[in-house]
């Protein structure tokens, strides 16, 4: 598969869990194209009661030329994703939620956005 850019993603593109199982469709791409920052996706999940879920950028493994998206998450983890908030870029973490490397990366990304470097 050839990798693609978030610029090519369209609403309705297939979203797959890490094992290739289809888990939903792209509803909306969250990005600042002027600054070339991809922040994540809002997806419409087909499992459980359905509805919209927020996928953070690091949870996207790849975007394919065929328009599909593969996540780093299992189907069960996708079911547990949060619903998008009015500002889905808002980050919060408890020490038990993340290992230090993930927390460090999220804090670095937040600092870059806040400081205008990202």
From TrEMBL:
<feature type="region of interest" description="Disordered">
    <location>
        <begin position="78"/>
        <end position="102"/>
    </location>
</feature>
<dbReference type="InterPro" id="IPR014747">
    <property type="entry name" value="Bac_photo_RC_H_C"/>
</dbReference>
<protein>
    <submittedName>
        <fullName>DUF2171 domain-containing protein</fullName>
    </submittedName>
</protein>
<dbReference type="InterPro" id="IPR011033">
    <property type="entry name" value="PRC_barrel-like_sf"/>
</dbReference>
């Amino acid at each position: 598969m050839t990798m693609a850019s978030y610029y090519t993603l369209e609403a309705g593109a297939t979203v797959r869990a890490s094992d290739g199982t289809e888990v939903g469709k792209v509803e909306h791409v969250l990005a600042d194209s002027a600054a070339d920052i991809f922040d994540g996706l809002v997806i419409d999940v087909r499992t459980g009661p359905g509805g919209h879920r927020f996928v953070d950028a690091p949870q996207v493994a790849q975007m394919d030329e065929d328009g599909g998206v593969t996540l780093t998450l299992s189907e069960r983890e996708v079911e547990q994703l949060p619903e998008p908030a009015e500002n889905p870029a808002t980050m919060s973490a408890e020490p038990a939620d993340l290992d230090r490397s993930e927390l460090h990366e999220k804090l670095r990304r937040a600092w870059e956005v806040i400081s205008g470097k990202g």
